[in-house]
Amino acid sequence: MRQTPPPEAPFADKMAYYRTQHTSTGVRATHLVGTPIIAAGLPLMFAKPRLGAPMFVGGWAMQILGHKLFEKNLPSTHKGWITYQLTGVIDVCEQYGEMLARLAKIRSRRKARLQ
């Protein structure tokens, strides 16, 4: 297992470490759902606590459960809260971007076949 980069390490090293902790399809799936729930729940905790708090807690429960079941490790956030929150959000955004690009490519091929 790769060692956690020190706090002064470049962000790219931290991102690479984050990816070593998220290799299974199961944990990636729980993060694709859980991370947006956490991100939406955080501001809602202050604006609408009855909605935001369960979203925030539920999203985190999903993340932790995903790590326990699929990776047999803990979320990276215990090694640097802000840094690994950012790497998680960036990684999930990148995965969604890749999915959207694949979908656009499939649609483009279908459209070309129909013409």
Helix content: over 70%
Secondary-structure class: mainly alpha
Strand count, sense and barrel status of the largest sheet are: none
Number of domains: 1
Distance between the termini: 51 Å
* Poorly predicted ranges: none
Number of helices: 4
Label the overall shape: globular
Number of strand elements: 0
Radius of gyration computed on alpha carbons: 17 Å
Could you report the average pLDDT, rounded to the nearest whole number? 92
Strand content: under 5%
Please provide the ordered H/E string of secondary-structure elements.
Answer: HHHH
Helix-strand layout with pairing:
Layout: H1 11-20, H2 25-47, H3 49-71, H4 81-114
Helix pairs in contact: 1-4, 2-3, 2-4
Short characterization:
The chain is an all-alpha fold and 115 residues long.
